[in-house]
Amino acid sequence: MYYLSMIFRNALRHRLRSGLTVLGIVVAIIAFGLMRTVVYAWYAGSEAASKSRLVSRNAISLVFPLPLAYAGKIRQIDGVKSVSFANWFGGVYVTEKNFFLQFAVHAPTYFDLYPEFVLPPEQLRDFQRDRKGAIVGRRLANTYGFKVGDTVSLRGTIFPGNWDFVVRGIYDGAEKKTDVSQFFFQWDYLNETMRKVAPRRLNSVGVYVIGLTGADRAAEVAAAVDATFRNSLAETLTETEQAFQLGFVSMTEAIVVAIRIVSYLVIFIIMAVMANTMAMTVRERMTEYATLKALGFGGGHLASLIFGEAVVISGLGAAFGIFLTYPIAEKFGKATGTLFPAFRVHDETVYMQLACAGLIALIAALVPCWRAVRVRIVDGLRNIG
Question: Where are the alpha helices (DSSP H) in the chain?
């Protein structure tokens, strides 16, 4: 007990210095945790994607559509359980800053393929009966105040014009990682409008979503779909939904790598700051360490005192930093709106924060500990008096 008391007294002997060091560690731990949370959020869409669903698109690019007639041929392929389709809409709600995912979907089949979208049956029926009906995610509804029965107006970009939709349902996620920030409306409404304003775009599908009889048949079915439409005017590229999502993430891989580098750089900087603090502390206490050696205390005792002091300072910083990461991440997530499908602090992030705090304490104490252990009693006592 006396030993622990000595460690805490040493850690708090210079309160201003120790306080500033703890504050630096708090800021570093929060920054690290927040940046790691951003990285996890970046991959949230691919993590939530299913391996038992395939996405088939135009082999040239997503901007080129596929014919509606492909649906019947895909259904006939062995291993296919169900087929639906969707078009990316890309409308603007009020201003360009209000970004959220918008899809025109085949109302009778689309939600059967996504059991993770939890929607009351009566709301799904109302949506399917209303040509202008829309389904919105819970997070999207909370962000913009959408309620069932509200009219939502979007300004089309890919499909020009002003489009009015009526919210017929709000879906929740079966899991925390489920994206509840999307906006769905009926593909039939889009197609009927295209019949009037742009007949050349009639019966065009952005992507086909294919449900499988088993996830182990994904590669086989994907190859069969692509073989079916090989050498046609619109060849397909079919892959698992997870691979499809990762394809989008890879386009911004440089940003993710930069965030990771900065997160570790922050830890490295605070490690250097704390190492300097510990070096100053040991330099000031050389006489004390020499006295302890003269009294018979060994190098292990001195090392444990220094390591203990580093652990106390780093531990305090980690405790406050991890505690504050949650409310700050929550506010950050609200500030970003629906930019990220899911923004929450993962358990892995907390474990990494604890590991970084331990590493900071270990590295910062190594050199000061080595100097204290190697000090000669004569050299340490020379400055007495």
Answer: 2-11, 15-42, 44-48, 70-75, 121-129, 138-144, 187-197, 218-228, 241-251, 253-284, 286-294, 299-335, 347-374, 377-381
